[in-house]
Amino acid sequence: MLVTWGIMEKQRTAIVNLKNYKESTGKNIENFLGSLNSVHTDEKVRIIMAINPIDLKSARKYSKFEVFSQTVDPVPKGSFTGKIPMESLSEIGVNGSLINHSENRIEPQKIESIIQMSRTYSLETVLCVESPEEASRYASLKPNFMAYEPPSLIGGNISVTTAEPSIISDVVSVCRTHGVKVLVGAGVKTGEDARRSVELGAEGVLIASGIVKSDEPSNALEAIIHGLI
Ligand code: G3P
User: What is 12-228's CATH number?
Assistant: First the structure.
């Protein structure tokens, strides 16, 4: 019998955070994103590139994947010097934004305003948190995704899925009550790390150096995709 992937199956998500790494920004962004375009994917896994605001327009041009911003501000267009209005992201085809990344933390009030305002502009929010307590504080705001990333493991070689399985389970159970999808990140590198994230109840991963710093970024992303399905 032919078994096809049905609507009942859960879609997984992999967000690649390009940060401000030399290899993936500025004059290198075309090559970097171009190399990832060879990655085969289908509807089972949603692939998103998280891009610094300066490179968003280039990313839209050079990537076949969805593009999110790494940050956004809860302001309309107007006299807001230096801010990133949501409407400006929507206008250039950006579908969402990371917020409160541990390298760019923001005030609780600002988190709340961004999540509320994002609905007006149909922008998705990926709220980064550093602990189950923080997840619990914000879950009722219902961001589209809660991304759990312990700062001490970010950029390292020990995956959060190996080091903190029970904390991931705690974050998942807090978020599940509010229907919020969970991503995990920090030290995620391999297909096995991705597979483990799903086993622990997450919908997918938020990953940076495992792709950007890899000698073969497209192979590294393929491995993550295979681990998620
Ligand atoms: O946003 C993802 C990031 O903070 C995790 O970094 O290098 O450990 O995958 P990395």
Answer: 3.20.20.70
